[in-house]
């Protein structure tokens, strides 16, 4: 084959959108938010896909209802299997004026299925389950410091 044709074929393949050559992946995640054993209503729960090179993709979001329940279905078309996690920004246990960000990575074995997180205790640092990795960090706005 003429090397010019091979180069042209490679260039054309790079122009094909991921949707044309990838797979449509999905995951459903449900649970109930708790803070100190009380239901957490009206809190935004986001479902993300962790990316290696580019910025993570927001798949879907859901605001918890009165009893703290959430139910999210997210889809993504890409070549490799998605790496799902949920993110919740909240004030449970946070220093005054700050908020916490809780992220729970969900094992890829749940892609294409429904993962029931059951209770998500925002005042804890772990879910206690082996197929979930929970990280919690506190974010505070920068302080205004007067010049002396």
UniProtKB/TrEMBL annotation:
One Gene Ontology cellular component: cell surface
Recorded hits in InterPro entries, A to Z, give:
Transthyretin-like, Transthyretin-like_sf
Q: Which Gene3D superfamilies match?
A: 2.60.40.3330
Subcellular localization, per the record?
Secreted
Keyword terms, alphabetized: Secreted, Signal
| Ranges in a coiled coil | none
TM segments? Answer: none
The family line of this record is:
Belongs to the nematode transthyretin-like family.
Q: What is this protein identified as?
A: Uncharacterized protein
Name of encoding gene: WBGene00280916
């Amino acid at each position: 084959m003429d090397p010019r044709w091979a180069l042209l074929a490679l260039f054309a393949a790079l122009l094909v959108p991921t949707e044309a050559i990838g797979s449509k992946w999905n995951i459903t995640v449900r649970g109930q938010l708790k803070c100190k054993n009380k239901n957490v209503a009206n809190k935004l729960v986001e479902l993300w896909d962790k990316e290696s090179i580019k910025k993570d993709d927001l798949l879907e979001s859901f605001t918890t209802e009165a009893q703290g329940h959430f139910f999210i279905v997210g889809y993504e078309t890409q070549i490799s299997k998605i790496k799902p996690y949920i993110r919740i920004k909240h004030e449970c246990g946070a220093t005054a004026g700050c908020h916490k960000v809780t992220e729970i990575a969900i094992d890829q074995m749940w892609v294409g299925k429904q993962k029931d997180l059951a209770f998500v205790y925002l005042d804890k640092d772990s879910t206690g389950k082996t197929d979930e990795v929970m990280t919690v960090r506190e974010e505070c706005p920068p302080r205004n410091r007067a010049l002396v």
